[in-house]
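Format notes (please read before filing issues)

Several people have asked whether sequences and structure tokens are stored in separate files. They are not. Every record keeps both together, in the order shown below: the sequence lines, then the token lines. Line labels are part of the format and must not be stripped during preprocessing.
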Amino acid sequence: QVQLVESGGGLVQAGGSLRLSCAASGSIFRLNVMGWYRRAPGKQRELVAIIGSGDSTNYAESVKGRFAISRDNAKNTVYLQMNSLGPQDTAVYYCNYKPYASGSWYDYWGQGTQVTVSS
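Then the structure lines:
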């Protein structure tokens, strides 16, 4: 089993910054993808950013140039640095961990952390 513990959400004014962290524990596999997704009120969950175990990254167009994802493999932790936040970034942010083991990909989610950006 895998546990994901998120932290760093909160309330910030437009133009501000926040840094989210997600620490994974339990069954950690070397080959994996970690990332962040978000669900805004009344909308479906969407990808924000992902990072592979080789540090390759992918971002949603809406956050490119403003958000940066990184990871510390020694700590099994993924970070999301969010800059120039706007009200459109208000959402619950979920950490995701996808390990590859025994020929299959698995999928684990954190409990979510609220990010609220005031205008």
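For reference, the curators noted about this record: The chain has no helices and twelve strands. The radius of gyration is 14 Å.
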